[in-house]
Write a structure and sequence with these properties.
Elements (H helix, E strand, L loop, with lengths): L15 H8 L5 E7 L8 E7 L17 H13 L3 E7 L1 H7 L1 H14 L8 E5 L9 E5 L7 H22 L7 H4 L5 H10 L16 H10 L1
Parallel strand pairs: 1-4, 4-5
Antiparallel strand pairs: 1-2, 2-3
Helix pairs in contact: 2-5, 3-4
């Protein structure tokens, strides 16, 4: 079923698109987003969420605009209200193999496939690109501010990835992933210069690839 989303004027609430799609006969409308395109280390993580039709979509906003504590509260709320949620993860090795754009889309695909229950019949996808799936979907630039479902997915993805990076910090404390979550902060860049790279760094990313040979030589000397 082909469908064109209505143009948004900017004053619609963030359940407008979902309500429009339900009015057109779609039964399971999902939002999909990812976290971790920009870091120098760690996986990219995506989430997919289907909010109950009677839930307050306005509670869910772009994960980048709220605190970590608020993200945790909203993640727990999603579970409490019975939202259908799926997570997809693509490793840093796969990112290096297929590039970050394709890895992000693959993570989204996995998130959709990991949803419990039946497959969604329409997906609102954050960004410019569609997920390589057969189901009906529409990419939505800055979708976290336009769709409660995408906003919910952004919160789930961010919380899941942060948890992964906190765990990885225990294995590679020199890089302080506990704080920077793998993003290219000044502290993280200095740690790479001082220690070389570790196994979870993305070797094709600028800021890492310059140190690949240096790190290999250092390990051989040891």
């Amino acid at each position: 079923m082909n469908i064109t989303l209505p143009e948004l004027c900017g004053n619609e609430d963030n359940s407008y698109l979902e309500r429009f799609l339900y009015s057109k006969g779609f039964l399971r409308v999902a939002g999909c987003d990812e976290a971790g395109r920009g870091p120098l280390a760690g996986p990219v993580v995506a989430a997919c969420a289907i909010l109950p039709t009677d839930s307050d979509h306005s509670l869910f906003v772009d994960s980048k605009t709220i605190t970590h504590r608020k993200r945790l509260e909203l993640r727990d709320l999603l579970l409490e209200i019975g939202a259908s949620c799926g997570i997809g993860i693509v490793s840093e090795q796969k990112i290096d193999e297929i590039n970050i754009l394709q890895a992000s889309l693959l993570a989204m695909k996995r998130a959709v496939e990991n949803l419990p229950g039946s497959f969604p019949d329409f997906i609102l996808v954050d960004g410019k690109f569609s997920i390589p799936l057969l189901t009906a979907q529409a990419p939505l630039v800055k979708g976290e501010s336009k769709s409660g479902s995408i906003a919910a997915a952004s919160i789930l993805a961010k919380v899941a990835r942060d948890r992964i990076m906190v765990d990885l910090h225990q294995h590679f404390p020199a890089y302080n992933f506990l704080k920077n979550k793998g993003y290219p902060t000044r502290e993280h860049r200095l740690a790479i210069e001082e220690n070389g790279i570790c196994p979870i760094h993305r070797k094709t990313f600028r800021g890492v690839k310059e140190h690949v040979k240096q790190s290999a030589a250092f390990r051989e000397k040891r």
